[in-house]
From TrEMBL:
It is an enzyme of class 1 (oxidoreductase). InterPro entries: Haem_peroxidase, Haem_peroxidase_sf, Peroxidase_pln, Peroxidases_AS, Peroxidases_heam-ligand_BS, Secretory_peroxidase. Keywords: Calcium, Disulfide bond, Glycoprotein, Heme, Hydrogen peroxide, Iron, Metal-binding, Oxidoreductase, Peroxidase, Secreted, Signal. It is found in: Secreted. Residues 23-316, 357-646 form the Plant heme peroxidase family profile domain. It catalyses: 2 a phenolic donor + H2O2 = 2 a phenolic radical donor + 2 H2O. It comes from Eleusine coracana subsp. coracana. This is peroxidase. Ca(2+) 1 binds at residues 399, 402, 404, 406, 408, 415. One of its GO terms (cellular component) is extracellular region. Belongs to the peroxidase family. Ascorbate peroxidase subfamily. One of its GO terms (molecular function) is metal ion binding. The keyword Metal-binding applies. The gene is gb22016. GO terms for biological process: hydrogen peroxide catabolic process; response to oxidative stress.
Length: 646
């Protein structure tokens, strides 16, 4: 049995490794199989030309796979497991398995055992949407295939058409998909067909259905179950083979085919999103593509996990006769306890190699001491004044959310003097670090990268988790306007819905939003930022509010009064922020919004009870935040000093 002190770093490494492995990259096959994507696209185009509905069937296959995108849905049953194909939502209903098998055979012909079935599903889903006139997006790649499948997981995770809004929301939230993602993804029902057994009850028994629409369906679908069960009707009657936003227009006139469809527009919280998507095809397209990427990111296997199958319906383990039913939790813990640090480090290295345009080794040859120089300067600044760690972390956030992570926040001008940025600190520390880095490598390391690394080193200096920072950002030559700042950095009066939607617009999920808000486990806020919350809100602990009121007067004044964002451990990067929220001790209105009876309550509970869950979600979200619209290649410049363009 490993001692605690030995096991803890091991677990941390495992956690970090799985954080890093969650990163897929759009260029994954660029060298190993440059023709993979064009091979898949032309095969999908042929299949959809033959039968337009196949586009719908392939899109749905990716969805049914992705509640864990590992191609497990494609595996036939074996002696050791019953696969997903006979699960209730799949049996007699999923289609396109043969098309995928054909595509796989064509891809194997160009690159032997290189491209996973899970990636083929993800690309085929995108190509299907495009073939039917819908939007395109860049598919992140590098998923590997599972070696096993589990019928009961599919029965448990895939939502049935009888679900109400609350169940639908919960089932998507369970996969870290926001309510907006859920509404956008449901727009997939703008193509394809459903069997009568899935909407009979709705057209005979429900009242939130257009009566002419119901009557016309009743004409072909008898009331008694057992007859005509498998006959088909289009999910979008108006344009069943065009990927458009007509689905939402249908919902507005109570012409959703499935009970679950009409739930999205039934006097509830998603009505306005449906109205928005119905009136704006481009709003729908952009939400749909963002949500497809989020869905494609659900628990992929990467690095050395899983396998690359040669044929999508069979695991290589089965092909070679190896037992697939492995890995009880006891087996796993003994594997973990005996694994060496070296192999875990190797896993981390392998995993991070799969990162997007940015790369963790960007300065390895051009400025090998860059990272060490930044780290020692940050550590010195934080030991002099612990709050500086908080200020540097916030600087990176304010940089990334406005015009992307391009160090624009460091330039004097309208961006820096906009409301939310007036309380930023740490500019001098960044200037000093830049001077030290310039001294060893002239005009090589960007200010945007320095901000990103300094944010990570700040978290570490205050006892928080570490992660590998992808690098290669370049600096902007302009700052943003105050309007851009106001549109992208929400005030502390923001509601949960506003928070979710701004993060969503950056490609960050609700879980990322909650995790990143955990940054408020360190640092301070000024009285005007929390005044309204401690005097006007009711979702605040009374004695907590009273103690803050003692120093922060009602009405006005107290502009220089500070309070710690986390009263319990203001200078320690831990998960206390989330426990504070559970006892209604969030300092800002926006903090307490995360735990106020809404969709993020469970995530807050999870992070409050598990420091490891928070650390890993935080590290993942920081990497994602650091990826917001970086300037790369020949874009922008590398500034000589951070406060001015060259
Ligand atoms: C919101 C929860 C969802 C429920 C309850 C649901 C349920 C269903 C049902 C019952 C059918 C008809 C199956 C049949 O009668 O054989 C169907 C078809 C379909 N679903 Fe969903 N679905 C949901 C979300 C999604 C998502 C997220 C996607 C993809 C992003 C999707 C894509 C499709 C497509 C394209 C079809 C037509 C397939 C074909 O014609 O072969 N669905 N869905
Ligand atoms: C969810 C939306 C967010 C809102 C509305 C928000 C708002 C605020 C406000 C009002 C303050 C206090 C400013 C003052 O009174 O001086 C603050 C401080 C801070 N914020 Fe946020 N914030 C958000 C998200 C984040 C994120 C994503 C991070 C980093 C990942 C972050 C890191 C910090 C830190 C570390 C401080 C303390 C800074 C210091 O002591 O110098 N915040 N935030």
């Amino acid at each position: 049995m490993a001692s605690d002190s030995y096991l803890f770093p091991l677990l941390l490494l495992v956690a970090l490794a799985s954080v890093a492995t969650a990163q897929l990259s759009s260029t994954f096959y660029d060298t190993s199989c440059p023709n993979a994507l064009s091979t898949i696209k032309s095969a999908v185009n042929t299949a959809v030309n033959n039968e337009p509905r196949m586009g719908a069937s392939l899109l749905r296959l990716h969805f049914h796979d992705c509640f864990g995108c590992d191609a497990s849905v494609l595996l036939n049953d074996t002696a050791t497991f019953t696969g997903e194909q006979t699960a209730l939502p799949n049996q007699g209903s999923i289609r396109g398995l043969t098309v995928i098998d054909n595509i796989k055979a064509q891809v194997e012909a160009v690159c032997n055992q290189t491209v996973s079935c899970a990636d083929i599903l993800a690309v085929a889903a995108r190509d299907s949407v495009v073939a039917l006139g819908g939007p395109s997006w860049t598919v992140l790649l590098g998923r590997r295939d599972s070696t096993t499948a589990n019928k009961s997981n599919a029965d448990r995770d895939l939502p049935p058409p009888t679900f109400d809004l609350a169940n639908l929301t919960a089932s998507f939230a369970n996969k870290n998909l926001s309510v907006t993602d859920m509404v956008a993804l449901s727009g997939a029902h703008t193509i394809g067909q459903a069997q009568w057994l899935n909407f009979r009850d709705r057209i005979y028994n429900e009242t939130n259905i257009n009566s002419t629409f119901a009557t016309s369906l009743q004409a072909n679908c008898p009331r008694t179950s057992g007859s005509g069960d498998t006959s088909l009707s289009p999910l979008d009657t108006t344009s069943p083979t065009s990927f458009d936003n007509a689905y939402y227009g249908n919902l507005l006139s109570q012409k959703g085919l499935l009970h679950s469809d009409q739930q999205l527009f039934n006097g509830g919280s998603t009505d306005s999103t449906v109205q928005n998507f119905a009136s704006s095809a481009s709003a729908f397209n952009s939400a749909f593509t963002a949500a497809m990427i989020n869905m494609g990111n659900i628990s992929p296997k990467t690095g050395s996990q899983g396998e690359i199958r040669r044929s999508c319906s069979k695991s290589q383990l089965e092909v070679s006769g190896i037992e697939t039913d492995c890995c009880s939790s006891e087996d796993l813990s003994s594997v973990m306890a005996s694994a060496s640090f070296l192999s875990l480090l190797l896993l981390v290295a392998l995993a991070t190699a799969a990162s997007a345009q940015l790369s963790s080794t960007f300065y390895s040859t051009s400025c090998p001491n860059a990272l060490a120089t930044i780290k020692s300067a940050v550590t010195a600044a934080v030991s002099q004044e612990p709050r500086m760690g908080a200020s540097l972390l916030r600087l990176h956030f304010h940089d990334c959310f406005v015009q992307g992570c391009d160090a624009s926040v460091l330039l004097a001008g309208n961006e820096q003097s906009a409301g939310p940025n007036l309380s930023l600190r740490g500019f001098n520390v960044i200037d000093n670090i830049k001077t030290q880095v310039e001294a060893i490598c002239k005009q090589t390391v960007s200010c945007a990268d320095i901000l990103t690394v300094a944010a990570r080193d700040s978290v570490v200096a205050l006892g928080g988790p570490s992660w590998t920072v992808p690098l290669g950002r370049r600096d902007s030559t302009t700052a943003a306007s105050s309007t851009t700042v106001a549109n992208n950095l929400l005030p502390p009066s923001a509601s949960l819905a506003q928070l979710i939607s701004v993060y969503q617009s950056k490609g960050l999920s609700a879980t990322d939003m909650v995790a990143l808000s955990g940054a408020h486990t360190i640092g301070q806020a000024h009285c005007p930022s929390y005044r309204a919350h401690i005097y006007n809100d009711t979702n605040i602990n009374q004695s907590f509010a009273a103690s803050l009121q003692a120093n922060c007067p009602a009405g006005s004044g107290g502009t220089n009064v500070l309070a710690p964002l986390d009263t319990t451990t203001a200078n320690t990067f831990d998960n206390a922020y989330f426990s504070n929220l559970l006892s209604q001790k969030g300092l800002l209105h926006s903090d307490q919004e995360l735990f106020n009876g809404g969709s993020t309550d469970n995530t807050v509970r999870n992070f409050a009870s598990s420091a490891a869950a928070f650390s890993s979600a935080f590290a993942t979200a920081m990497v994602k935040m650091g990826n917001i619209s970086p300037l790369t290649g020949t874009q922008g410049e590398v500034r000589l000093k951070c406060s001015a363009t060259n």
